[in-house]
Amino acid sequence: MRGPMTARKGGEGDVFARIGAFLSEQGLSPEPAHYSFAYSIITEPDGAIAQAVRRLTDGGVRLRRGDIESLGGTVVAGAPTGEPVQPRRPDISHADALEDNAARLVAETQAQVAGFTTIMQAMQDETRGFGRDLAESAAAIGTPQVIGHAGGLEEIARITGTMLARVRDAEARLASATHEAEALRAKLADANDTARRDALTGLPNRRAFEEAFTARGERDGPYCLAVADIDRFKRINDIHGHPVGDRVLCAVGRLLVEECAGELVVRHGGEEFAILLRGKTLAQAAEHLDGVRAMMAAKRFRIRESDQPLGSVTLSIGVTAVQVGDDSAAAFDRADRLLYTAKAEGRDRVCAA
């Protein structure tokens, strides 16, 4: 099939990859509005918008909502809304890298869907005259010149054969296009899910948290936000190795999901988890999370390969009430400061405010 799909193997494929990378770097979801904004920057690198973006992102910071809107873009759910962030840490985990690749896959798949629309338009152009030709052929069969001609039957057979061939060709094209549309739809659904899920623990990730926080309904509140961190996790990795550390992360994630059933539990990054609790006052949330903390501290882990005891794994937790008008950055910053207060006060505790 010719057209965009063929071109994508060459120069256009690089454009789509660069657009996907831009969306991932800026924390933008692959919505059409974001894709259009990125397209204008990537395809016109010397334009005024692209130059402004380079100045704003110099040093590795992300664009703010206000930056994007001031440049004529539109921000929808999943886009950055707070202050610029610092460049990504050099110790970025493999799982975080997988999430970034998944986000890029979403953007690339979105571009393929857009290209498929162009393919369908090309098919319509190629077959636009089919109905007219079919009517003319049917009329030709009934003319006296064909009916009364000695070779009339042969001419009727020829016209009918031509029409049938075009019908079969159109059916084959439609079947191929339908198959490609279904494949693209499935790929896009998988990519969207992958981009919002942590590769190691299977929990929702930071992107899913941002979207859920933005989409929360104030009437469904009150809400509280907790940030939980595994105490002395680096020591576990240093002594027992990263495979053991990964299993500890998965075990902590499972316990949080089980004991916070119905709440959004995400791996926010590294050994840090975020929990968005709905319908609880701050005091109720703190009490519930202290019970989760105590349950984690009471568990005794063992090394699978040697059956040696790993010892207790404890959590420090900061929890804050989400205020009306809070964005995710403001609420998370409060909870994160409370988390470090809990660390400073001796770890294995909940600090609420």
Give the helices and strands, then pairings.
Elements: H1 4-7, H2 11-25, H3 32-43, H4 48-56, H5 65-70, H6 94-127, H7 130-141, H8 144-147, H9 152-195, H10 206-215, E1 223-230, H11 233-240, H12 242-259, E2 264-269, E3 272-278, H13 282-298, E4 301-302, E5 309-311, E6 315-321, H14 328-344, E7 350-352
Parallel strand pairs: 6-7
Antiparallel strand pairs: 1-3, 1-6, 2-3, 4-5
Helix pairs in contact: 2-3, 2-6, 6-9, 7-9, 11-12
Tally of DSSP helical segments: 14
Percent helix: 55-70%
Element-level helix/strand string = HHHHHHHHHHEHHEEHEEEHE
- Categorize the overall geometry: elongated
Specify the biggest β-sheet. Answer: 5 strands, mixed
Low-confidence stretches: 1-12, 78-95
Overall description:
- By secondary structure, this protein is an alpha+beta fold.
- It has 2 domains: 1-195, no CATH class; 206-352, Reverse transcriptase/Diguanylate cyclase domain (Alpha-Beta Plaits, 2-Layer Sandwich).
- 59% of the residues lie in helices and 10% in strands.
- The chain contains 14 helices and 7 strands.
- Strands 2-3-1-6-7 form a 5-stranded mixed β-sheet, sandwiched between helices.
- α2 (11-25) crosses α6.
- The model is unreliable at 1-12 and 78-95 (pLDDT under 50).
Short account of what is shown:
By secondary structure, the protein is an alpha+beta fold. Helix content is 59%, strand content 10%.
Notable characteristics:
about 350 residues; alpha+beta; Alpha-Beta Plaits; 2 domains; 5-stranded mixed β-sheet; two-stranded antiparallel sheet; 14 helices; disordered N terminus
